Amino acid sequence: MSAGTVLLIDDEEKLRALLKRIIRLEGFVVMEAENLKSANRILDKEHIDVILCDVKLPDGNGVEFIRGVKAKFPLAEVILLTAYGNISDGVQAMKSGAFDYIIKGDDNDKIIPLLSRAMENVQLHHKIELLENRIGKNYRFSDILGDSPLIRQAVELAQKVAPTDATVLLLGETGTGKEVFAQAIHQASKRSGKPFLAINCSSFSKELLESELFGHKAGAFTGAVRDKKGIIEEVGGGTLFLDEVAEMHIDLQSKLLRVLETNQFIKVGDTKQTRVDVRIIAATNRDLQEVVKNGQFREDLFYRLNVFSIELPALRDRKKDIPVLARHFIRIYAQKGNPQVKGTSEKFIEHLLQNDWKGNIRELKNVLERAVILAEGPELTVDNLPLEMQTLGYHPHTLSAFDLASVEKLHIQRVLNHTKGNKTEAARLLNIGLTTLYRKIEEYHLSS
Fold first, then answer.
1. Two domains, one topology: 5-132 and 322-394
2. pLDDT in tens, 411-421
């Protein structure tokens, strides 16, 4: 079982190879970089739990590097390697957010215990973040907006099943509001006073998902230094929402099936059963019957989950709800960051209605958040929409390549001004990759 991913940064190839071998033998996944530039490329692409970094590198200082890492990846832990045991470096490292520091060569026997503690700390922080994300998000059926027949039908079905203990399967495209429905069902059930926890099955490796869901006993694998309760056990009489359940590894599906059938399971590394009281609400954007045919999903689990299924409509199939949804989200985003925004132009709403919304409500929210941020007056206009939406309903030949480039340049500059030069945040708001943003900045000679 993999105990997590470590990034090793050191310009000494022989030492790097030695440490890599030592760390891999303990079950950790190891990635390596010879300098900070290579390390940053890896961090932009891969999920890293713990970074083991030399203090002195050809293109920078490890102590200074920590500050940037902790700003972008606050849950990652950094352990510094120093050749001289410089106390001032160590003190500065800890102040900058390092987990610890060790002396190269002399402390090789300390690396694995230290990595294990750092990895345990990372997993604990992930658990805390998961729990905190649930606080304050007690959606109810009254929070589900829209009067179109399809959404009303879905709400009525959910209201009927909510008071029961039946397992519910929510179906629909990504971004249609499946977690909102799951929380509304929980709040209308007899379990409403108990926890509601959500986990996305596609966000974890098979091994980590098994540990997160079912917990483990001390010594079950490298880094498991003490017993750990799984999320299913921690729900304690409440509701567990399994999003993207079709992505769960087939080996774990049998354990979930046992929970649904017997309310029992066996923790990783344990020999006895653990009894739980939990209601399962599952969701997927895939055709589960097709996934069953392909051999990627157990047929018996499909029938056990599909006790009561509810199809959530795509936003393009309930376009009459877009104006009321838009007003709701605009009010929220204006209160958060741009209170001068009070409404929209008619053309703005017309352009929203013309879009296909392949990302559904999630895409609508992102577009409106960006529009509110970019607004320079009390009314949102078409100019505040993404470029591809501004041209909806118009013939492409009416805009030259120069015009398109000019609009894009202006839009990117506005976002960079809003984020005060924070390129990571700007890339998120623009919904583009960080490397693409850097290329555009260079191409358009933008100030950042």
1. no
2. 888 888 788 88
Give, in order, the Cα–Cα distances in Å from 61 to each of 7, 54, 212.
16, 8, 36
pLDDT given for residue 168 in this prediction: 97
Q: Is 314 exposed, middle or buried (0-12, 13-18, 19+ CB in 10 A)?
A: buried
For residue 446, report the phi and psi dihedrals to the nearest 5 degrees.
-80, 155
For 107-138, the pLDDT digits (tens) are: 667 788 888 888 887 876 666 555 544 444 57
- Confirm or reject CATH 1.10.8.60 for domain 322-394, answering yes or no: yes
Residues with Cβ within 8 Å of 300's Cβ and at least 6 positions away in sequence, in order, are 257
**Residue 385 Cα distances to 23, 168, 320, 331, angstroms:** 49, 37, 20, 17
**Which residue has 């990571």 as its token pair?**
424
* In CATH, 395-448 is 1.10.10.60: yes
pLDDT tens digit sequence for 46-73: 889 999 998 889 998 888 888 888 877 8
Q: Nearest 5°: phi and psi at 65? A: -60, -35
Of the candidates 28, 22, 25, 26, the one whose C-alpha atom is nearest the C-alpha of residue 5 is 28
Residue 346 CA to residue 175 CA, distance in Å, equals 25
Q: Which residues, 6 or more positions from 298, have their beta carbon under 8 angstroms from its beta carbon?
A: 250, 253, 254, 257, 292
- β-sheet with 196-200: strand ranges across: 196-200, 239-243, 279-284, 168-171, 308-311
Q: Report DSSP state, residue 313.
A: P
Going by C-beta distance under 8 Å and a sequence separation of 6 or more, which residues neighbour residue 140?
183, 184, 187, 188
